[in-house]
Amino acid sequence: MEKSEKVTQLAELTKEFSTVAGAVLTGVAGLTVAESTSLRRKFHDAGVHYRVVKNTLARKAAEQGDMKVIADLFVGPTAIAWHTDDPTAAARVALKAKEELEKLEVKGGFLGGNKLDAAGIKAVASLPTLPELRSLLLGTIQGVAAKLLAQLNAPAQNIVGVVAAHEAKQKSEGKAA
């Protein structure tokens, strides 16, 4: 690879790494072409960027930003999976793929300036997605508003109930008389 090509790839990787919300590094040694293709498709379908990287370039690109904490993980045949918006997406897809591909090695990950080990990646993968979090928050907000509205309407409902009971009592007394 020529020096100009390396400089271009380094600039590209540095730019891509600057937008990472969450990333997972995998070891791809021993995977067949079919397994690699299937793995790429899984990441692509989930909206996760997946790229086999040249370690020296990836290490340099990582060291220029927040991902410097994982620069030491770029050893051996390495691929990186990342998402720009959803910090849990890459971890979820990687762990699901690991269940199907025994040879896939999860080396570590990155989230919010922190280095993750295998246990950390499992924890991140179990977190709800951003849309799920939004729906939970919206449900909580709506629940509070509904309870407040019920409390505000309760006195009016009680008055209506008393008036209706009084009216029913008068009708029954009028029929009995």
Descriptive notes:
With 177 residues, the chain is an alpha+beta fold. The chain folds into 2 domains: 3-127, Alpha-Beta Plaits (2-Layer Sandwich), CATH 3.30.70; 129-177. The chain has 6 helices and 5 strands. The protein has helices at 3-17, 33-45, 55-63, 89-100, 118-125, 130-176, and strands at residues 22-27, 49-53, 78-83, 105-111, 114-116. Strands 2-3-1-4-5 form a 5-stranded antiparallel beta sheet. A hairpin with a 2-residue loop joins strand 4 and strand 5 (114-116). The model has no long low-confidence stretch (mean pLDDT 87).
Question: Helices, strands, pairings?
Answer:
Layout: H1 3-17, E1 22-27, H2 33-45, E2 49-53, H3 55-63, E3 78-83, H4 89-100, E4 105-111, E5 114-116, H5 118-125, H6 130-176
Antiparallel strand pairs: 1-3, 1-4, 2-3, 4-5
Helix pairs in contact: 1-3, 4-5
Essential attributes:
Alpha-Beta Plaits, 5-stranded antiparallel sheet, 2 domains, 15% strand, elongated, 177 residues, alpha+beta
